[in-house]
Structures are given as C-alpha cells and as structure tokens.
Specification:
Layout: H1 3-12, E1 30-31, H2 42-56, H3 63-66, H4 72-83, E2 91-93, H5 97-111, E3 117-121, H6 126-139, E4 142-146, E5 158-164, H7 176-185, E6 189-193, H8 205-208, E7 212-215, E8 230-233, H9 277-288, H10 295-316, E9 321-322, E10 334-338, H11 342-351, E11 354-355, E12 357-359, E13 363-367, H12 375-391
Parallel strand pairs: 1-11, 3-4, 3-5, 5-6, 6-7
Antiparallel strand pairs: 2-8, 7-8, 9-10, 10-13, 12-13
Helix pairs in contact: 1-12, 2-9, 4-9, 5-6, 10-12
Bound molecules: pyridoxal-5'-phosphate.
Pyridoxal-5'-phosphate (PLP) binds at residues 96-98, 125, 127-128, 164, 168, 193, 195-196, 216, 229.
Length: 406
C-alpha cells in the first residue's frame, strides 16, 4: 500500500477526525508545530471577541465581578486540571512558566529548609535552568545539573528535582511515577515541567504523587500566543506555599488593602498581580474544544501518528537521523530528526507550506497534535520533505537567512 492510501485508511478509523473543523488552519498549510504554538479555534476567537466587545467595551470595570474575571485563574486552572490528572483546586492559571517556576522552586526550598540543592537535567529547556540559577542565587542554594539519568544524582542535599516531562529536543518521555518515587525516597520534592505533555498525553499528576508542576497553554492546549501558564501543587502542600512574588492577587484579602502580606489559602497563594483577561478568555474558548475529549484517545492517535511519520520518513528521506525514541510509549507527541543542514531544510519545507521548527544545533522538530491533524496531512508532509531533500532546494541562499525566532 502506498503512503497516501495507508494514511487514508488510518484517517477512516480515526475517532478524533471530526474535531478538525473547530480549528482555523490556513489553506495549503500542514501544521506540524502545534508543540510550539497551537492554532486558533473558532471557540477561542469567539470568546476573545465577546471579552473585548461586550465584557470590556460595554461592561468596563463592572466585568471584574459581573463577567467573573476575578475568578478566572482558579476556574481555568480547574479545567486544565482535568486534562492533566489533577484534583479540584490543585491548579491555578497565571503568569508564564518562567515566573511560575521561580515561585515553585522557592516554595520547594522553603519546604526543605535543611537542603540547599536544586537538581535538574542538563538537557532541560534553558529557561528552566536560567530560572533555577536565579532562585539559587537569591536563596543561597546550588544548582546541580545531571548529565546522565537525573535520579542517579539524587542525594541528601537535594531539596527539589526538576524534570521536563517530555524533552523539548528529542521528545523523550520521562516516567513521572518512577522518578517522583525516586525523588521522594531521597527526601526531595519532584517538580515537573509539562510544556510538552499537557494536551498531548495523560499526565496523571495526582496518581504519580508529583509535588509541583508548571506548564503552558500556548502549545497543545491552543490558548494563543503568550497564553497564561499554570501551576500545580499537590493538596498536601497547600497550607505551606511560600513564594517570593508576594503581590496583592496572592493576598488572603486583596481588596481589604491591608499593609502587611498574608498569603491566600490554597493555590491562590501562587498569584501575584492582575491577570491578562483577554488572554484568559481566549484560553477559556480554547478549552471548550477539549470538552468531551478523552486524553487516552488523544494519546492513542498521537502514538499512531508519530509512528507512521517515523516509518514514512525513514522509507522516503535518506540522510535524516532519528533523534527521538523509537518506541512510541517512550516519546511524547513530537518527532525529531537530525541533519547538519536542519535549519535550511526546515526553511525550505516551510516555504512549501509544511510548518515544523528547528532547534539548534541540528534538530528538525515535528509536532503532532491529534485534535486537528490528519494522517493524510502527515503523509503529504513526508512527501514534501522527501522532495526538499531530493531536489536540494534547501541550498538556496534565502533558506539560510535566520530570523530571531526559530
Ligand atoms: C519545556 C519548556 N519550558 C518552558 C518553556 C517556556 O516558558 P515560558 O512560558 O516562560 O516562555 C518552553 C517553551 O517552549 C518549554 O518548551
């Protein structure tokens, strides 16, 4: 069977195929970058429109109460929580991952006052490491980077072990339950970055016993560019959250305008300042698209899709080296291939309407979001990649020009 026929057979059996119509994907584009920025959905744009024209333009300041703006961080946190296996009241939406991680790592050091090490994988997404450095500098702690398996570097000084659930470059998926148990056995707290797993697979934070997690909503959750991030804390930590960005939104009584700070109860203690309401509303719309979606079905399609992509690329595109785990259970919803001219090849592919991205030094990265991608698109993307390689068109000088964002 040829690739397109095989893809059509897979599409015919896809229980999520009918969700595609919810998203606006431009004609002629095959979008394999939902792991960086998810597309707009009709529901997200409609929610944004209502928020701007009715709640803001008409409601003005009254909307903080009348339209429920004030409650958005916890309300949206609850809806995100359902998708990542978090119990009621354990997730709050706010700020960015970077800022939330700053708060979480400080909270960890406060929970383990006799331990002064933050342990992270050397391959973590850089902002995680930069933030951990900043926390260590502020709190008199030390950042230890594990070059090998992170759990091997656990020890009596480690307060928190920070792990990226899915590695942003390779797509390798970490075993959350096993690593969390290892951290706990060593007396440390387990902190998870869910950037590449929220909305892509069953995360199961409560079931894994995780202590804290951070994640974003602009990737697989399709909340929009710069959409608010979120924080998770297990219920057992709720009474003891001490974080340094002690703004009025995280106060127990923000509108009492008291002089001294007293942290709010539960997850509201992670809030700092006034939230970006329009971004929250776009996210609220995007989350409507997840209603009735079972994460197990998303994961099953994602594994089938990444496997088909690997098989097809390896059959049609000589010269590319797989940089992701070969076993579907061991990777997230992305596939990476290495090539010394990966940047130019990706630019040439984008010029053909197949959008993936590039991560230095040599990684071509392809994301597979099961809610809006078809197997036929994936097969067509592989055919385009094969043509880019075979024709050598990527050698054109224009494809070597670098933008600020890759
Ligand atoms: C693993 C990981 N963490 C963090 C971030 C970015 O965090 P922020 O929301 O602070 O920009 C990214 C962005 O792609 C990421 O992949």
């Amino acid at each position: 069977m040829d690739m397109i026929a095989e893809a059509r057979a897979l599409d015919a059996a896809d229980p999520l195929a009918d969700r595609r119509g919810r998203y606006l994907i431009p004609e002629g584009v095959i979008y394999l970058d939902g792991n960086s920025l998810g597309p707009a959905s009709h529901a997200a744009l409609a929610a944004l429109d209502v928020a701007a024209r009715e709640e803001w333009a008409e409601g003005l300041i009254r909307s903080w109460n009348a339209a429920g703006w004030f409650e958005l961080p916890m309300a949206l946190g609850g809806r995100i929580g359902r998708l990542i296996g978090a119990g009621e009241g354990c997730v709050v939406a706010c700020d960015t991952i970077s800022v939330n991680l700053y708060k979480v790592l400080h909270a960890c050091l406060a929970l383990r006052p006799d331990r002064r090490v933050i342990l992270a994988e050397a391959t973590s997404f850089p902002t995680d490491l930069y933030i951990a450095e900043g926390v260590c500098a502020a709190a008199g702690a030390r950042l230890v980077l594990a070059e090998g398996p992170v759990e091997a570097a656990l020890g009596p000084e480690v307060a928190a072990m920070l792990v990226n659930h899915v590695d942003y470059r390779s797509g390798a998926l970490r075993d959350m339950a096993a690593l969390t148990a290892a951290a706990h056995a060593a007396g440390a707290l387990a902190v998870w970055d869910l950037s590449h797993s929220a909305g892509a697979l069953e995360v199961g934070l409560d079931a894994a016993g995780a202590d804290f997690a951070v994640g974003c909503t602009y990737k697989y959750l399709n909340g929009g560019p710069g959409a608010p991030a979120f924080v998770y804390a297990a219920t057992r930590h709720h009474g003891a959250i001490r974080q340094p960005v002690t703004g009025w939104w995280g106060h127990a009584r923000p509108f009492a305008f008291e002089t001294g700070f007293e942290a709010a109860k539960g997850m509201k203690a992670f809030l700092a300042g006034t939230q970006p309401v329009l971004s929250f509303r776009a996210l609220a719309g995007a989350l409507e698209d997840w209603e009735g979606v079972e994460m197990g079905a998303v994961r099953a399609k994602s594994m089938r899709m990444t496997q088909a992509f690997i098989n097809w690329v390896e059959a049609a595109c000589p010269g590319l080296e797989l940089a992701s785990p070969r076993a579907a259970e061991a990777r997230g919803s992305q596939v990476s291939f290495c090539h010394a001219n990966g940047y130019e090849i990706m630019q040439a592919l984008i010029a053909r309407g197949v959008i993936g991205d590039f991560r230095a030094p040599d990684v071509l990265r392809f994301g597979f979001a099961p809610l809006y991608l078809s197997f036929e698109e994936v097969a067509r993307a592989v055919l385009a990649l094969a043509e880019v390689l075979e024709s050598g068109e990527w050698r054109e000088a224009r494809f070597a020009e670098r933008g600020a964002v890759t």
